[in-house]
Specification:
Blueprint (H helix, E strand, L loop, with lengths): L1 H28 L17 E11 L5 E10 L2 H14 L6 E2 L8 E7 L2 E6 L2 H4 L5 H16 L7 E6 L2 E2 L26
Parallel strand pairs: 5-6
Antiparallel strand pairs: 1-2, 1-3, 4-5, 6-7
Length: about 190
């Protein structure tokens, strides 16, 4: 019996030494755990969260908000869900869709504060045109993402897997863009 207790004691000492060694190594090397997915402060994974989607008002003069609930699953999945909800269109009768029917999301990825959103090429080919409609389309996507996910500072819209100069000939989307919430008031300045 004493032999078993000695072996258990020795095993416990070995385990404690291993744990202490790991802790000391991590402290000395500046180790910081890497999260398995990026998420907002205080947000648990797979947790419902209410976000604001940016649609056009009934007159098409400004952006207006509609709240929706999505499941938070890290930045990329949450952005994908948000853009998918935007593509589904508004539920409120006094709002209008900003994206043409039939547009799909090819992919979403996140790197260095920039969300890259790759949409199908019919975003351009089916867009009704006009500089103001194009502006509302671009910023409904960008604002929906930047205003709901603090980790995202800018959004790069890709079409058919490529960077484009414009969506429909008017608004420069060749680089990552920040949000413009002043469009809620119909103000471009």
């Amino acid at each position: 019996m004493k032999k078993v207790l000695k072996m258990l004691g020795a095993g416990a000492v070995v385990v404690a030494l291993v744990i202490a060694s790991i802790v000391i190594y991590r402290l000395m090397s500046g180790y910081e755990p890497v999260p398995s997915t990026v998420r907002g402060p205080g947000t648990a994974l797979d947790e419902p969260r209410v976000i604001d989607l940016y649609f056009a008002d009934a007159d098409g003069r400004r952006l207006a908000l509609e709240a929706r609930e999505v499941m938070v699953q890290g930045v990329e999945e949450s952005v994908l869900q948000s853009v998918s909800e935007l593509l589904a269109g508004p539920r409120k009768k006094n709002l209008s869709a900003t994206l043409p029917e039939g547009v799909g999301v090819r992919s979403v990825y996140f790197r260095d504060g920039i969300a890259y959103v790759d949409l199908t090429s019919n975003l351009s080919s089916n867009h009704p045109g006009g500089s103001w409609a194009e502006l509302l389309t671009v910023y409904s996507i960008i604002n929906t993402i930047t205003e709901n996910f603090a980790e995202v500072a800018r959004v790069q819209i890709l079409i058919g897997g490529r960077e484009r100069e414009t969506l429909a000939g008017h608004i420069d989307i060749s680089r990552p863009l920040p949000g413009r919430v002043q469009l809620l008031a119909g103000d471009w300045r």
